[in-house]
Amino acid sequence: MSSRDIVEDSSNDHQSGVEMPQTQASPMHPVKLKRQMLRRERRERRTADLIKQEKEIDNQMQEAAIERARELDTTVRGKYSIWRKEYENPNSDSTVKLMRDQIIMAKAYATIAKAKNETMLYNSLIKHSRESQLSIQEATTDAELHPSALDQAKAMGHILATAKDRLYDCVTIARKLRVMLQSSETNVNLSKKKSSFLNQLAAKTVPRPLHCIPLVLTTDYHLRNYEGKDFPGKEKLEDPSLYHYAIFSDNVLATSVVVNSTMLHAKELDRHVFHIVTDKLNFAAMKMWFLVNAPVGAAIQVQNVDDFTWLNSSYCPVLRQLESSRMIEYYFKAHQSSSLTAGSDNLKYRNPKYLSMLNHLRFYLPEVYPKLDKVLFLDDDIVVQKDLTPLWSVNLQGMVNGAVETCKESFHRFDKYLNFSNPKISENFDPNACGWAFGMNIFDLREWRKRDITGIYHHWQEMNEDRTLWKLGTLPPGLITFYNLTHPLERSWHVLGLGYDPALNQTEIQNAAVVHYNGNYKPWLDLAIGKYRSYWSRYVMFDNFYLQLCNLNE
Known about the structure:
Layout: H1 3-15, H2 30-71, H3 94-115, H4 119-136, H5 149-167, H6 170-204, H7 208-223, E1 243-248, H8 252-265, E2 272-278, H9 283-292, E3 299-304, H10 317-322, H11 325-333, H12 357-360, H13 365-368, E4 374-378, E5 382-384, E6 401-403, H14 414-417, H15 423-426, E7 440-444, H16 445-451, H17 453-463, H18 475-481, E8 486-488, E9 494-495, H19 506-511, E10 514-516, H20 530-537, H21 545-549
Parallel strand pairs: 1-2, 1-4, 2-3, 6-8, 9-10
Antiparallel strand pairs: 4-7, 5-10, 6-7
Helix pairs in contact: 3-4, 3-5, 3-6, 4-5, 7-9, 17-18
């Protein structure tokens, strides 16, 4: 082919719309070409498999639909009508709600009728309101209503229709309903305050059996001359190689449950030592109980907090504050109220536990137990469900306190407990720092002494003399004292909330090593949440002579 022919061919190609590449592409490497072919084959196979799988699913669905159609019994018509009586919802409350709404409207119209001297209509509305209220009573579902309730609702409907025809005025009705709404809100708030006050009062009241138990124990203690008796195993009390528990309580029954439940699940029974500290009033009763009901293998020590001569106002800031006239004024006078509801918010400030050194003694563990290296602190409102000895082997990584964190919920962080508007707090602590729980804490007393934890506690207690950093309790100063010195334990070690939250996860409770009745609904009170009570009561010795004498029954 001549060069002229080539030029002509090129010109023809260009004119026919075929663009010639400027440069010739380099040939593809055989390996790369092979990979492309393999990828294409895999894609095609996957596509074919998916199409096949989809067809199989469609066929299965069609077969299932055909099978269901064959089994369906269509011989009885009307059997599946939603209006039939047997298909009514047993929990329906539509009629109850209707009747309550009717009562509200009847009261609104009655007020207007009285203002307009419609005496007969007013009397009729009041009469039907009372009858409807009697029909409803305490019913929450339609099934609980009296059989005549529906007739009463119809009669009320007729009188309301009459009232509407004669009295209806949109502006007047709206104004009246608004007044009723505000009045109802006021009554609800008033009821909440009363309920809160009575709740706090009931939670702080000692039931008769619990008041009886220490009385009969104290009487027997002195009548039977148990003052001179002591517990066996005194050589174990300062042995750091054993498992030591600290319980500070004035409740004999609650303390017995803590000890019983711990020992029931414990291994190496002869290696457990319980150090119980109580007050002067309950010392004889507490000692008497454990002298006659000593747990098998365990060593027991019962002490009177008033015998700790070193625990005085010159050494302990909180004791000095509790004895001050300002604190007495704060707890007993400034917050006393002339009315039931006005004082409901402040009743907790007069809770005896906040005035008891037993509650603050947890910050003096090295002074109480100078020869020990580790102590497991237990509150008296806990129940042990598993062996706790592995806690002594937990590596606290140089921390002082081992505790379960409670900031799974956002409101259990430092800003809930401390006053971050005060620069002393805001400059030293993170408001989002995670809170933790007292109630089951493993304390390394060697690190405690090395870091002078009690000194830190004293420093912050003195700074809070005017109560501007936190108001009350031991958890806020605990969070401050052990800030960045707390090692988080697994949550299953300590489940909280059995004293206030009825919606806890039942599986978590059953799997927990320790369950904690923190809150007002203690398991020994009538207020206790029923479904949680059994976790505590199973460790109560109901066949005990003293408990039977005081009529404490399951």
